[in-house]
Amino acid sequence: MFGLVFSRRFSMAHRLTSGLSEKCALPHGHNETVTVRLVATRPQRLDGAANMVEPFERAKARWHGWIDQAVDHAFQINAADPLLGWFRAQEPARLPRLLVTPGDPTTEMLACLMMAKLSAFLAADGGVLRCASIVLEETPTNSVTFDGDPADFLPEGLAADAWWHRPDPSINDLGAAA
């Protein structure tokens, strides 16, 4: 089976507040790379003319736009982080730049949320492709690979209409609460 594989690099900041990584409790940043592997939802023979599953440009356009315009230079923050209240009170204009996660914004969590978001984009684009795997490289020596159904790995009880399920450019659901 053919797989379309492409990568995008972005910068981010986050902090982890669960107490499992004291050095990560202070806001800090990484230059990350996300690599996705897309496959046809209904694999077929090459047609002898165009000979492609889907043009790369069409397959990656919405995804790359989202990474470049919403995720790049966003601050990834736990929905329960007290800093979120500070941003609401002190810098509400920056709320759209907060990528809000259910629990700490770990590489594992981000890989799951990104898989869900990309799946929403692909479904909205006609469902010709599906994401088979995602690799999120946090540093040159640390990465996470995810190839499952995000619903099987995300915490239970999350909203079915959360930002990661929608094919829009959102990275949080703070608009109504701001």
The ordered H/E elements are EEHEHEHEE
The averaged pLDDT comes out at 93
Distance between the termini: 46 Å
What is the CATH architecture term? 2-Layer Sandwich
Number of domain modules: 1
Give an overview of the whole structure.
With 178 residues, the chain is of the alpha/beta class. The chain has a single domain (4-165), classed as 6-pyruvoyl tetrahydropterin synthase/QueD (Tetrahydropterin Synthase, Chain A), CATH 3.30.479.10. Helices cover 24% and strands 28% of the residues. The longest helix has 18 residues, at 107-124. The radius of gyration is 17 Å and the shape is elongated. The mean pLDDT is 93.
Record keyword descriptors for this entry.
178 residues; alpha/beta; Tetrahydropterin Synthase, Chain A; six-stranded mixed sheet; 6 strands; 24% helix
Itemize the secondary structure elements and their pairings.
Blueprint (H helix, E strand, L loop, with lengths): L3 E11 L13 E13 L15 H16 L2 E5 L3 H9 L7 E4 L5 H18 L4 E11 L2 E5 L32
Parallel strand pairs: 1-3, 3-4
Antiparallel strand pairs: 1-2, 2-5, 5-6
Give a quick summary of the entry:
With 178 residues, this protein is α/β, with parallel strands linked by helices. It has a single domain, classed as Tetrahydropterin Synthase, Chain A (2-Layer Sandwich). It has helices at residues 56-71, 82-90, 107-124, and strands at residues 4-14, 28-40, 74-78, 98-101, 129-139, 142-146.
